[in-house]
Amino acid sequence: MKKIIIAIDGYSSCGKSTLAKSLASHLGYTYIDSGAMYRAVTLFLLEHSIKVEDQDRVQTALKDINIRFADNNHTLLNGRDVESEIRQMSVSNYVSEVAAVPEVRRAMVSQQQQMGEERGIVMDGRDIGTVVFPKAELKIFLTADPEIRARRRYDELAQKGQEATLEAVKANLTHRDHIDSTREDSPLRQAADAVIIDNTLLNREEQLDRAIFLARQAG
Ligand code: C5P
């Protein structure tokens, strides 16, 4: 089977990264969490008290930001493991504002495209099938019931010992989905040639089986 590019897009907390990670591992592919990159930029801006409105400082900051992934998929910001910090609500509450800045997107998209040059990659995000890899051999658009998504994200945060109420998680998902789908630059859209998987009633194995089947067809 030839190595292909697999794009997985969808709304916040649909389980994209869980599916993408297990699919990549099954196929022996590289997994790239594009959302983690926007989260790392957001963490950097928050740590340096840089607001998105301050375009000059954002531009300068982008030159000082180096994002890499460790072998265990942890996100490294200028060499520092920030995997846990980028999942905190302080970052979640600001990331969509940061990700709507065209300069930020341009910098991230260019890095993401470089990561895909060797193919054999599963990347999840919001604009992977539409902007980053419009020619990806397989595009999956993942959806799930909003209540279920909020509950899943809440449980995930609770498991990690991060404090947040279910209401706050729900409000954050609604806020991010709204900004992500209405921004001018690369809004979240289902690519015309994407296959929809609604995982509201599917368990992880069922989703993975479906994705493996689609990958085999596409490869
Ligand atoms: O995937 P995750 O929920 O961690 O992404 C965090 C945020 O990063 C999203 O809400 C969205 O604003 C932004 N994002 C994006 N484009 C991507 C991936 C994520 O704008 N490809």
UniProtKB/TrEMBL annotation:
Subcellular localization: Cytoplasm
Limits of the Cytidylate kinase domain: 6-213
Keyword set, alphabetical order: ATP-binding, Cytoplasm, Kinase, Nucleotide-binding, Transferase
Reaction(s) catalysed (UniProt annotation): CMP + ATP = CDP + ADP; dCMP + ATP = dCDP + ADP
Enzyme class: transferase
UniProt-listed InterPro entries: Cytidylate_kin, Cytidylate_kinase_dom, P-loop_NTPase
GO molecular function: ATP binding; CMP kinase activity; dCMP kinase activity
Any single biological process term in GO: nucleobase-containing small molecule interconversion
Domain of life of the organism encoding this protein: Bacteria
EC number: 2.7.4.25
Binding-site list for ATP: G10, Y11, S12, S13, C14, G15, K16, S17, T18
GO cellular component: cytosol
PANTHER family: CYTIDYLATE KINASE (PTHR21299:SF2), CYTIDYLATE KINASE/PANTOATE-BETA-ALANINE LIGASE (PTHR21299)
Family the UniProt entry places it in: Belongs to the cytidylate kinase family. Type 1 subfamily.
HAMAP family assigned to the protein according to its UniProt record, in alphabetical order: Cytidyl_kinase_type1 (MF_00238)
NCBIfam families attached to this UniProt entry: cmk
Record's protein name: Cytidylate kinase
